[in-house]
Design goal:
This protein is mainly alpha-helical. It is built from three helices and two strands; from the N terminus they run αααββ. The chain is elongated, with a radius of gyration of 26 Å.
């Protein structure tokens, strides 16, 4: 699986290099608008929407992973509490 991801990354980098050589510093949005092709504009808009959905899904997954790790750590702390006993020091504060 890692090999497939590496290969896809290389192919994407090559394609991006070719695109930059052809287009230069002009953004894709400006390039699409200048072509006046409705079908191309619709495809580009769909692509941007899908990309935004992917970013939202990624952020949601990261949040769920963090919540799951936090929950797991709290359960582990409940199951196996810290070994040292809490005592009071000379100032009446809890020693941790």
């Amino acid at each position: 699986m890692t090999k497939d991801i590496d290969e896809c990354s290389r192919n994407l980098a090559r394609s991006e290099g070719i695109r930059r050589a052809l287009v230069g510093k002009q953004s894709m949005a400006k390039l699409i608008d200048s072509m006046d092709d409705k079908e191309l504009s619709m495809i580009y808009e769909k692509l941007i929407k899908e990309l935004n959905l992917l970013v939202t899904q990624k952020e949601t997954n990261e949040l769920l992973i963090r919540q799951n790790l936090s929950y797991t750590n709290s359960i582990i702390d409940m199951i196996s509490p810290k070994k040292e006993n809490l005592t009071y020091n000379g100032y009446g504060k809890m020693k941790r």
